[in-house]
Amino acid sequence: MSDSDATLAIDRGLAELGDSFRSAFAAAADEQALRDAQAELLGKKKGALTRVMALMRDVPAEERPAAGAKVNAFKEKVEAAFQARLRELAGAQRAAELTARPYDLSLPGRVPEGRGHLHPVLKTRDDLLTIFRDLGFDVVPGPEVELEENNFTKLAFPPDHPATDMQDTFWVDVLDAEGKPKDGRVLLRTHTSNTQIRVMSSKKPPMAVVSAGAVYRRDDDLTHSPMFHQIEGFVVDEDVSMADLRGVLAAFAEGLYGAGTKIRLRPSYFPFVEPGAEVDIACVFCSESDGTRASCRVCKQTGWVEVLGCGMIHPDVLDHCGIDPTRYGGYAFGFGIERIAMLRYGIPSIKLLFENDPRFLAQF
Ligand code: FA5
Fold first, then answer.
1. Model confidence over 153-184: pLDDT tens digits?
2. Peptide bond preceding 271 in cis form (omega within 30 of 0)
3. Does residue 132 line the site of ligand 1, with CB under 6 A?
4. 3-class DSSP string for 75-107
5. Domain span at residue 307?
6. C-alpha distances out from residue 251 to 28, 62, 72, Å
7. Does some domain include residue 114?
8. Whose CA is nearest to atom 30 of ligand 1?
9. In whole numbers, what is the pLDDT of the chain averaged over residues?
């Protein structure tokens, strides 16, 4: 018995389709293309295999099992090839994701929310150093953790001198390899005057030096902070006088607050200078040109604001550093940067400078 026309048509249809689905699936570059290629075969109305399967309706009952088995076997081959290609595409996509750059260069950039700037203390420090650089001073660094010797002893503070009470600080234990305290007491420096000792011990006169940095004291109120910043300046040469010191400080005051700014020196005591003085600048907020108006809180109604300590370097200090005091003399001065910044910007409390509230800092 020969096969019916319908069975023959099915055989022909399947033979025509042959293996073409394999190359169609292989050509699909992504899942959507693969599903489109599958629909070409199995789409409800127009699928090529669907049309072949529709011929089953005309197959006589006795031929149906054999014809059905052939069609099903074909369908299974198609399904298996489809699933294999689907897995392949998913694997390739995952691999591409894993090896891709972790960022997307094509995304638009973010606009910065605002530019940062130097802290007002550092800005003031830089402006002050510029004034001294312009006057011919070299700028040098100095350590914050210092030997007691350089911070006090060589600056002629005898051990237990009452002046050290005003500069109580944090002491540091320096241990040797076995964990035992080493010789020599170490502290967080209380002033930048330690740079005088370090520089004078390592350089030969003449020298004109300034140094800025953080210092530490056991202080805490509206105008005093446990950590603050100072600038130290000193000159060592032959024939140096108090008049030179006054001239440099007057130029400094004018550089800071403008031409004509007045200063005055009042006698004061620091163990490492003789004579020593405190320097006041005419109050920039209320003083008339003759320094007499004296009407504001900043200067406490005196017309003058104290800004620094200074004096002629004590011969003993020069001697401690190996400089011959019979040939050379020198002057030195030191002041707090926060104090100048507070006067400059009208800041009422030193605390504001270190709380780092962005709303405060954004004002400078
Ligand atoms: C000294 O520190 C001396 N080394 C200055 C000096 C240098 C004198 C060279 C002579 C020759 P005094 O302790 O006065 O001096 O401090 C200097 C300045 O540091 C003060 O005028 C003040 O503006 C500032 N200052 C002192 N303590 C604090 C503090 N706790 N917080 C903020 N500023 C301070």
1. 999 987 777 767 777 888 888 888 888 777 67
2. no
3. no
4. HHHHHHHHHHHHHHHHHHHHHHHHHCCCCCCCC
5. 120-361
6. 82, 120, 103
7. no
8. 224
9. 91
Are 72 and 153 members of one domain? no
Task: Let me know: does 217 contact 179? Beta carbons within 8 Å.
Answer: no
Q: Is residue 39 part of a domain?
A: yes
Q: Is 215 in the pocket of ligand 1 (CB under 6 A)?
A: no
Whether the pTM exceeds 0.85: the reply is no
Select from 45, 65, 99 the last residue of a domain: 99
Q: Summarize pLDDT for 73-112 with one digit per residue, the tens.
A: 999 999 999 999 999 999 999 999 899 888 888 888 888 7
Q: What is the pLDDT of residues 316-356, one digit of tens each?
A: 999 999 999 999 999 999 999 999 998 888 888 899 999 99
Q: Which of 146, 197, 219, 230 is the best mutation target for the ligand 1 pocket, counting ligand atoms within 8 Å of the beta carbon and taking the most? A: 230
Q: Same domain for 86 and 144?
A: no
Which of 193, 229, 273, 342 for a ligand 1 pocket mutation test, highest count of atoms within 8 Å of Cβ?
Answer: 193
